[in-house]
Automatic annotation (TrEMBL):
Belongs to the small heat shock protein (HSP20) family. Residues 29-150 form the SHSP domain. Gene3D superfamilies: 2.60.40.790. This is Hsp20 family protein. SUPFAM superfamilies: HSP20-like chaperones. Pfam families: HSP20 (PF00011). InterPro entries: A-crystallin/Hsp20_dom, ACD_IbpA/B, HSP20-like_chaperone.
């Protein structure tokens, strides 16, 4: 794996140390599992949709949390004993001839850019859809400065 030296950025760009740290941690986070599979769609200029294939999970099995600028989606499948306690009617043991649907717990993390907020989530047909939107505050949006006559003088 190649490493990138970002030290020239520190000399001429102020405040980009956080960006460099994020890039560095992303390159080292190669041990993240590929389960569950997901898509990230661009729906509009500032709207995004994350779709995760989580067949077999219910709304009660999944948590979605934003910690600082990190979206954490975690799923914990009920074990056989937990499922039996939750549903007294289910007393028979299931016997699989082939088991291709994974029923394992997972945790998936997504780094969010500044001002990107989670606006909703829905679980339908085995897909967890999480909608996100970039909402830039008015004070951060570009503004035009009028050119006037004289500047205020310093009183030193």
């Amino acid at each position: 794996m190649r490493t990138i030296d970002l030290s020239p950025l520190y000399r001429s760009f102020i405040g980009f140390d956080r960006l460099a740290s994020t890039l560095d941690s992303a390159s080292q986070n190669s041990e993240q599992t590929t389960y569950p599979p997901y898509n990230i769609e661009l729906l509009g200029e500032d709207k995004y949709l994350i779709s995760m294939a989580i067949a077999g999970f219910s709304k009660d099995d999944v948590t979605i949390e934003v910690v600082e600028n990190t979206l954490v989606v975690a799923g914990k499948m009920k074990t056989g004993s937990d499922a039996a306690e939750a549903d007294d009617k289910q007393t028979q043991q299931r016997k699989f001839l082939h088991k291709g649907i994974s029923e394992r717990s997972f945790e998936r993390k997504f780094q969010l850019s500044d001002h990107v907020n989670v606006t909703g989530a829905a679980l339908e047909h085995g897909l967890l859809n999480i909608s996100l939107e970039r909402e830039i505050p008015e004070e951060k949006k570009p503004r035009q400065i009028e050119i006037g006559g004289r500047l205020l003088e310093n009183k030193h």
